[in-house]
Automatic annotation (TrEMBL):
Gene3D superfamilies in the cross-refs: 3.40.190.80, Fructose-1,6-Bisphosphatase, subunit A, domain 1 (3.30.540.10)
Binding site for Mg(2+): E77, D121, L123, D124, D271
Organism of derivation: Chionoecetes opilio
EC number(s) given by UniProt: 3.1.3.57, 3.1.3.7
PANTHER family in the cross-refs: 3'(2'),5'-BISPHOSPHATE NUCLEOTIDASE 1
Keyword vocabulary terms for this entry: Hydrolase, Lithium, Magnesium, Metal-binding
PROSITE patterns on file: IMP_1, IMP_2
Top-level taxonomic group: Eukaryota
InterPro entries named among the record's database cross-references: CysQ/Inositol_MonoPase, Inositol_monoP_metal-BS, Inositol_monophosphatase-like, Inositol_monophosphatase_CS
Reactions listed under catalytic activity: adenosine 3',5'-bisphosphate + H2O = AMP + phosphate; adenosine 2',5'-bisphosphate + H2O = AMP + phosphate; 1D-myo-inositol 1,4-bisphosphate + H2O = 1D-myo-inositol 4-phosphate + phosphate; 1D-myo-inositol 1,3,4-trisphosphate + H2O = 1D-myo-inositol 3,4-bisphosphate + phosphate
Keyword field contains Magnesium: yes
Name this polypeptide is given: 3'(2'),5'-bisphosphate nucleotidase 1
Length: 334
């Protein structure tokens, strides 16, 4: 049933429209990279940047969500300021009926618009987006001397995150990856995965991580001794240091890693709401580093000060939590 169909549960429509809205934001992100004027500003620190792509993507996402779901509460990473200047254009997601098969569990079919809190990260992986740009303008080709990897390879760490919460819980999510398939020039770029907890997941095949290994994925740009102590405590066979919360959860979903651990207060609610909903719709688990449920009601503090631990479906989340040393848990205070 197309999500636009009358009678589709509200949550299904919000997820379905959010897929189209996130795809449109992906076009904006790619266009700004192509133009090359990123308009980079520093927020809380040099590790906390904001570009014109973050701002323009947020404007397009939030104005569309406000138009079609005016009674919901919408919270974007880049704050109120970045939504104001309107060229009058509001993206219309209703024309896109590419998404079908969104099923909503019975306990969520009657969720009202006023109950929804939508957490928006218009561009997750800003550090990687800006780094790839820096490399491009400095003429790096192939493997970048500073990074040790190809600059382009950072681009698919970027995702657009639209997370939907009801009753303080992550219930629906959309993760769009604008640079998916960048390795194949000329091919269609981008993919979008979506899910409703207790309902369906769609947009990419789900694969279990390999047996006999323990692949941990974690930050590449916001590390600390506490972050590294938590990783070591899991005794991984491999550590994949990549950017983006959405990107790392996608790795759990496509079998590239068993667990994502980030023992840092750096992530916010907009980084984890959408990934958590999609991961849990697929049978995985996402909690804070103590194993506590992350709250997503409108008045919840934006910062996830007690870190993130996410496990792929079929993994023993509790066993990972038990291995996290007490000093790491003590360092991350609510
Ligand atoms: N210290 C920090 N300052 C600002 N944002 C952070 C910090 N640590 C993590 N984040 C956000 O959490 C995401 C996941 O962290 P990491 O990429 O290091 O694994 C980042 O992409 C960034 O989101 P964003 O890029 O949307 O600002
Ligand atoms: Mg940011
Ligand atoms: Mg983010
Ligand atoms: Mg962001």
């Amino acid at each position: 049933m197309s999500v636009a169909a009358k009678g589709a549960p509200l949550l299904s429509r919000v997820v379905g429209y959010s897929v189209a809205i996130a795809n449109n934001a992906g076009n904006i992100i790619r266009d700004i990279m192509k133009k090359g004027e990123l308009g980079i500003v520093e927020k809380e620190s040099a590790q906390d940047l904001q570009t014109e792509a973050d701002r323009a993507a947020q404007r397009s996402i939030i104005t569309a969500l406000q138009k079609y779901f005016p009674k919901s509460t919408i919270i974007g990473e880049e704050g109120e300021e970045e939504v104001k200047d309107l060229s009058g254009q509001v993206f219309d997601p209703t024309a896109d009926s590419s998404v079908s098969g969104i099923t909503c569990p019975s306990h969520l079919t009657s969720v009202a618009e006023e109950e929804l809190v939508i957490w928006v990260d218009p561009l997750d992986g800003t550090a990687e987006y800006t780094q790839a740009h820096e490399c491009r303008i400095s003429g790096h080709l192939g493997v970048c001397k500073t990074l040790g990897v190809s600059c382009e390879s950072l681009l698919d760490h970027v995702t657009v995150l639209i997370g939907i919460a009801s009753g303080g819980k992550a219930v629906g999510g959309v993760i769009h990856q604008p640079y998916y398939n960048y390795q194949n020039p000329g091919s269609k770029l981008g993919r979008t995965i979506w899910g409703i907890v207790g309902g369906s997941v769609g947009g990419m095949p789900l694969t279990a991580p390999p047996d006999g290994k323990l692949i941990v994925t974690t930050t590449r740009s916001h590390s600390s001794s506490t972050v590294n102590d938590a990783i070591a405590a899991l005794s991984p066979t491999e550590v994949l240091r990549v950017g983006g919360a959405g990107h790392k959860v996608m790795m759990l979903l496509e079998g590239k890693a068993h667990v994502y651990v980030f023992a840092s207060p750096g992530c916010k609610k907009w980084d984890t709401c959408a990934p958590q909903a999609v991961l849990e719709a697929a049978g995985g688990v996402l909690s804070d580093i103590q194993g506590k449920v992350i709250p997503y009601h409108a008045s919840a503090p934006h910062r996830n000060s007690t870190g993130v631990l996410a496990s792929a479906a079929g993994q023993d989340h509790q066993a990972f939590l038990t291995k996290i040393p007490q000093h790491v848990k003590d360092n991350l205070k609510a």
